Amino acid sequence: MQSVVAEFAGLFAEVLPRLARIAAFIAAGVFAANVAVAFGLIRYVAGLSGYLTRPANLPDEVGTAILTTAASTTAGYATLAEYRESGLLDDRATLVAVVINTFFGFVQHVFTYYVPVLIPILGATTGVLYVSARAGIALAITVTGVLLGGVLVSERNVDRSALADVDAAGPDEDDRPSRERVREAAVKSWSTLRRIVPRLAVVYTLVIAFVANYDVESLTAVAEPITGALGLPSAAVPVIAVYTLDTTAGAVAIQPLLDGTFTPRTAVATLLIGGILSFAVSTFRRSIPFQYGIWGASFGTKVIAVNTALKLVFISLTVALLLVPAW
User: Fold this and answer.
1) Which of 13, 158, 231, 262 has the smallest CB count inside 10 Å?
2) The model's pTM
3) Of 8, 13, 9, 19, nearest in space to 255 by CA
4) Triad 140, 116, 277: Cα angle to 5°
């Protein structure tokens, strides 16, 4: 009995300091991110949208949807849906606009999730490399959309006369007092922490206990042919399995293994592979209900197919680049 108590005491002595440090970084990061969003920082990033829509032969008004997407994915897609329904954009032009939207939809998550949550969990080196990889993937998809628009979209795909029936004013300026914006940022931050930190504590404790009591490499040796072919440690298999179901839990699962089992490159490659497999889960859980709700089943299926295909291609290329032994 005493040995069990001593084991639990040792476990919590190892877990609590790490958990407290990560939770503190997450709290500070989430609050700073919400304050930045409340004061319109995202608007400056989205202001670049006009430089992308014009080479893609899309109206400047499409930039409004891109700006809106950076603040709210739902609102941005709804704006594009309005453009399509009004006749401003046909299906081809709308698909190009959706592809261009990718990076600006990612920007929102940089401020609200990747920087304040994932980087504190993964640490500066691995975390920044992971976020940079995801940013590069999103930017590559957006640039692909611009190139496709330049080739595939023309005046035949855009009816500018329909602008008279479209509200293209974009999101309203936030004229609330600074104190009210900060207060709302604090409320949002607390809500995020209540959702993330308890789950983080449970998963982190289980992972630390598992790593401390079992040889992870030997337990996952059955996957050695696959992981070996990719240049990954066999411990990547359970991490990928966890990440497929929950991205935050996957990051927590790999964090204790960063000291020796994984290098930053193999860790990021593992998480990206988990992201590929998680598409099957996220498509049924989120993408189909969301996209069908915005576009309807027929066009929503096209949007999902295009988005998924481009993500698979560029994530696969990024994984291959990360696992090149030369750097």
Assistant:
1) 13
2) 0.73
3) 19
4) 50
